[in-house]
Amino acid sequence: MRLARGHVLIGINDEALLAGARGVEAALRIALDENGLADEIEVIQTGDLGAAGQGVVLSVYPDGVVYARVGLSDIAEIVSEHLLKGRPVERLRLQGATAPSGATRKKPRIVLENCGVIDPSSLEQAIGVGAYSAMAKIVEASISPSGVIDIVKASGLRGRGGAGFPTGLKWSFTAAGDEKYIICNADEGEPGTFKDRLILEGDPHRLIEGMMIAGYAVGASKGYIYVRGEYALSIERLQGAIDAARDVGLLGGHVLESGFAFDVEVKKGAGAYVCGEETSLIESMEGKRGYPRLKPPYPGAVGLWSKPTVVNNVETLANVPPIILHGSDWFRTFGTEKCPGTKVFTILGHVEKPGLVEAEMGTTLQTIIDEYGGGVKDGKAFKGALIGGAAGAFVCPDCLDKPMDFDGLQELSAVLGSGAILVFNEDASIVEMLDGILAFFKHESCGQCVPCRAGTRALKAIMGRIRDGEGEARDLDMLVEIATAMQAASLCPLGQSVILPITTALKHFKPEFEALIN
Amino acid sequence: MKELLERYPATTEYMLDMLHDLQDAEPKNYLKPEALQAVADYLSVPTSDVVSTATFYTMYSLKPRGKHVIRLCESPPCQLVGAESLLDILGEHLNVQVGETSEDGVFTLETASCLGVCGVAPAMMIDAELYGNLTKERIVEVIEDVRRRDATS
Questions:
Q1: Cα distance between residue B75 and residue A389, in whole Å
Q2: Residues with Cβ < 8 Å from B131, sequence gap 6 or more?
Q3: CA count, 13 A, side-chain hemisphere, B15
Q4: Are the beta carbons of B116 and A424 separated by less than 8 Å?
Q5: DSSP state of A260
Q6: Is A58 helix (H, G, I), strand (E, B) or coil?
Q7: CB pair distance less than 8 Å for B16 and A432
Q8: Could you tell me the pTM of the whole model?
Q9: Strand A41-46 relative to strand A6-11: parallel, antiparallel, unpaired?
Q10: Contact at 8 Å (CB) between B56 and A272?
């Protein structure tokens, strides 16, 4: 086997690809060859290096140096200065960043610990950093399915998709039956959210292992990952990972030579926001329009093909293997009493360093914006933020000290699930943003139930005339009235949650709307 | 068509996959009536079941589209950094409204909800390829690049 004295990781994801990552990689390999370093320094493709909006990102080990916005013209200098002579090229370094493995106790990484560290298309590398060892522990120590559920319950893990329902409890509610299914909801469509995509692209085996453990716990032998049709790279990486795991018997009739059978299949969506709702997703998997079902019964009792089905979000499942491996007490050392663990956020908009963030539950909004996002861009003032995507809530500067966990956000009428934080500076127009959000809902309402179908249209029409300066005095009350009716009468969370951005925008920024009406 | 369909078991579970494949195989990027009929026959379900599914999802089209489908993201993170004006520029450059195909049959202009690449907003997809950090100038360049690539291939 060949040993290298150093490794250069190049982040390959959609963003890096469109910034020219393939060309940079090729140039790097040529330059290493020319400098006689090809045998000493290994170039490895990996997933996202956690620096969105930074173009092509390279991370050099063992030094732990991260370079951002690397272009073809920078390669010669990186190779001759840093890799040959050991002097990092300061002008290209991403300030304040350490390589992902440099996660500190202050900024721990659980879900993303391997993203940007391993080559996601290599099963060997994934195993090298511990993939499938949680499942191996279950098999070796003969932990029973109910034992697994107990560990997850004790960890306090709550669903990372939306409402934050306790995961262990959800598993324990799964009805008895011969045939059951595990579905991973990777239909990530909430505007401003791409955390799940980066987990899928950066560490697909982590997700497969999480599903395997969930399957073992509830007695399901078939898992599906429903991925948005737009996520081409995620689908490719997942399929590759599943094939590799199947080839060596990690998936199939005898997982790790045990009596437990489990296999996973990828399902590709076709563009419908509402399919992120679990029952719509199930309908879609059955080949139908993605219309939500009436609940109850919940999927745990009547799910895919009417069989008991557990639907979990990507990030939730990615938390499961480390919990099994290190125990529930370990997991509880992170985050807060009621919301243990970490949360993956995407921080966007008017910040210096937009991108992906994994922070402990309970971290304040201020800390996330300043320490992870680098503060408001160009030194402008913080006006507010939209938390949780379109079905999220607007917050104002008074909310900066609120802890970002399920309970802290409930006080702000926001939901944590999607983890999207869109930051606005003083120049942003909240009126324009709300108009955009209502246009989004009008487009994405599936049309099945009347309150949502008619309500989203009416809301957009009223908001449009306010925006154009043709609004009437009663229009603001009308918005709230219609959204309130929708909240009460709509079939699924899509129609029920339109009220969140409306009431929070009016609560914090009403004068901005009134100025256009008077 | 038969060949594409037979790669899947004949259950509705694979209907979305079949529709994707048949649409991708059609140069005009749409689902022909014959394709929908073929899926219905293969799955032994009423044709209306297939049409009902195909008309629900935004990635499928029952109308012929251009050789390339542009999907400009118009979600809040892109909107915040100017996606709306980019839509006007694209419309003007191609002389089309949203949903229409350019006269030469090359581009269809569509808008999309969040494409999940908000780190490089504003963004768009042309077919399966992503383009980010778009500006007024760059968006026209991208379109012309695609034209040039077509001309040389």
A1: 9
A2: A18, B123, B124, B125, B139, B142
A3: 32
A4: no
A5: -
A6: strand
A7: no
A8: 0.89
A9: parallel
A10: yes
Q: Rounded distance, CA A62 to CA A88, Å?
A: 12
- Indicate the residue type of A155: S
Percent of the residues in chain A that have a pLDDT greater than 90, as a whole number: 71
Burial class (CB in 10 A: 0-12, 13-18, 19+), A143: middle
Q: Rounded to an integer, what distance in angstroms lies between the CA atom of residue B94 and that of residue B142?
A: 13
Residue B58 DSSP symbol: T
CB contact under 8 A, A231 and B116: yes
Which of B76, B125, B128 is the closest to A436 by Cβ? B76
- Kindly list the distances between the CA atom of residue B10 and the CA atoms of B4, B17, B27, B42, in Å, as whole numbers in the listed order: 12, 12, 25, 6
In Å, what is the CA distance from A374 to each residue of A234, A257, A369?
Answer: 28, 48, 6
> How do B129-131 and A65-67 pair as beta strands?
unpaired
Say if CB A45 and CB A7 are below 8 A apart: no
Contacts of residue A124, defined as CB under 8 A and 6 or more positions apart, other chains included, come to none
Cα separation, A393 vs A163, in Å, equals 14
Note the pLDDT tens digit of each residue in B119-143: 888 999 999 888 988 999 999 999 9
Q: What is the pLDDT of residue A187?
A: 95
Structure tokens at A122: 């290599």
Q: What are phi and psi of A67, to 5 degrees?
A: -105, 140
How does DSSP classify residue A78?
Answer: I
Residue whose C-alpha is closest to residue A226's, from A161, A313, A162, A160: A313
Candidates A270, A420, A432; nearest CB to B57: A270
ipTM over 0.85: yes
Residue A380: φ, ψ to 5°: -80, 170
Those residues whose C-beta lies under 8 Å from the C-beta of residue A337, and which sit 6 or more positions away, are none
Please tell me if residue A285 touches chain B, with a CB cutoff of 8 Å.
yes
The answer to whether B143 faces chain A, any CB pair under 8 Å, is no
Calculate the average pLDDT of chain A. 91
Record the tokens describing residue B91, joined without a space: 């419309």
